[in-house]
Design a protein that fits this description.
five-stranded parallel sheet; single chain
């Protein structure tokens, strides 16, 4: 279906976020086949102006940002990069490593997804909702945004809302208010 759908995206500022499963998380034995498939997808997408962001996801073959960087480097196509997703990073990595990981990812960083969250230690311990409205949790969101600025990131920042119960409009309004406060605090 991708060959049929991609042409519909021509002329639209679109990015595919690809989750890659089919193997043990991080197993480099899958790199050769993944690179082959991703180069094919990149080749189909590039003439249409579509970018391809590798989306690290807990439990998938492409599980960590470092996996995505490794594979994107091997794919070596200008329209292929990586996505940083806070909730999946906190499940698979150490919060203190975020600045180093983002610095390493920065040449290929195409998208960032954030959400309210407890601290990384609490996420690892299974405490609290690891995906919440942006105004919840003890995670240092301002610190993350300062790090993104420090590594020169200027791309999109999306809000992760998967699995958040309750009224969507209400938690989106809360998240937008929190976003505005965060942005204002970074301007000072």
């Amino acid at each position: 279906k991708l060959k049929e759908v991609l042409p519909l995206l021509k002329g639209r500022p679109t990015m595919l976020a690809l989750l890659v499963s089919g193997g043990k998380p991080g197993d480099q034995a899958g790199d050769v086949r993944a690179v082959e498939l991703l180069r094919e997808i990149a080749g189909l997408a590039r003439p249409l102006g579509v970018r391809v962001a590798l989306y690290p996801h807990v439990g998938n073959w492409l599980e960590k940002v470092d996996d995505a960087i490794r594979v994107a480097d091997k794919v070596d196509r200008p329209n292929v990069g990586v996505m940083f997703n806070l909730c999946h990073f906190l499940k698979t990595g150490d919060e203190k490593d975020i600045p180093a990981v983002l610095a390493k990812a920065s040449p290929r960083l195409m998208a960032v997804s954030i959400n309210g969250s407890p601290t990384g230690a609490d996420v690892a311990a299974g405490k609290g909702a690891w995906i919440a409205p942006l105004d919840e949790g003890g995670f240092d969101m301002a610190g993350l945004l300062r790090t993104l600025k420090a590594v020169g990131y200027k791309g999109p920042v999306g809000l992760q809302c998967y699995g958040i119960g309750g009224d969507a409009r209400e938690h989106l309004a809360r998240s937008m208010a929190a976003w505005r406060k965060l942005r204002a605090s970074l301007q000072k």
